[in-house]
Amino acid sequence: MAVEVRIPTILRNYTDGAKAVAAEGATLDELIANLESNHPGIKDRLVDKGALRRFVNVYLNDEDVRFLGGLGTPVSDGDTVTVLPAVAGGMA
Amino acid sequence: MLEISQELVDKMIEHARRDHPDEACGVIAGRDGVPERFVEMENAERSPTFYRFDSKEQLKVWREMDDRDEEPVVIYHSHTATEAYPSRTDVSYASEPNAHYVLVSTRDETRAELRSFRIVDGVITEEEVRIN
């Protein structure tokens, strides 16, 4: 068993159009490294200078990982990780 | 072109006026590019110059859309002191290439300004809004 990672429309060019892919790792960081080895280029869209990009939301099951432990958040088999680009903007 | 009902247009304008002077934001979900289900979102920034969907609310709404086989057909937000045209900030965070980005300006109290755009790979294309 592995962790299911749900991929948003804008990143599906890295996953051959797949809405969800499987990945492995004990932490979110490891999971993203594993994702990168199967889908090169995707890591750079999620991580910048060792931290999650500010305008990408990553959820472990129902929680935003920012409120858990960021990239160090432990993940287990059977978990679902969801990636959603933040919807943001403004006149500034 | 964005084809949309008068009722949905009125709802976006009403929401923008209600939250003025802060920016209001939300989505209209639908299938096959037809906007149908109006979902007002919380502006987690509560700011007159910036908006961001609350991350938890966004997950809930995006899941609901997934379950119902819908997509975010329209993503709307308001500008409260400037024209209804995407700012540089709007373009840099635009992340739904299939969505119509609708902007409502509430800078004029008597006349609402509503325009629609596609934002793909940093390029803004204005489109006609047909209200039916």
UniProtKB/TrEMBL annotation, chain A:
InterPro entries: Beta-grasp_dom_sf, Mopterin_synth/thiamin_S_b, Sulfur_Carrier/Prot_Modifier, ThiS/MoaD-like. Pfam families: ThiS. CDD domains: Ubl_CysO_like (cd17074). This is Molybdopterin converting factor small subunit. It comes from Nonomuraea soli.
From TrEMBL, chain B:
Residues 2-123 form the MPN domain. GO terms for molecular function: metalloexopeptidase activity; zinc ion binding. SUPFAM superfamilies: JAB1/MPN domain. Keywords: Hydrolase, Metal-binding, Metalloprotease, Protease, Proteasome, Zinc. GO terms for biological process: proteolysis. One of its GO terms (cellular component) is proteasome complex. The keyword Aminoacyl-tRNA synthetase does not apply. Gene3D superfamilies: Cytidine Deaminase, domain 2. It comes from the Bacteria. The keyword Transport does not apply. This is Proteasome lid subunit RPN8/RPN11. It comes from Nonomuraea soli.
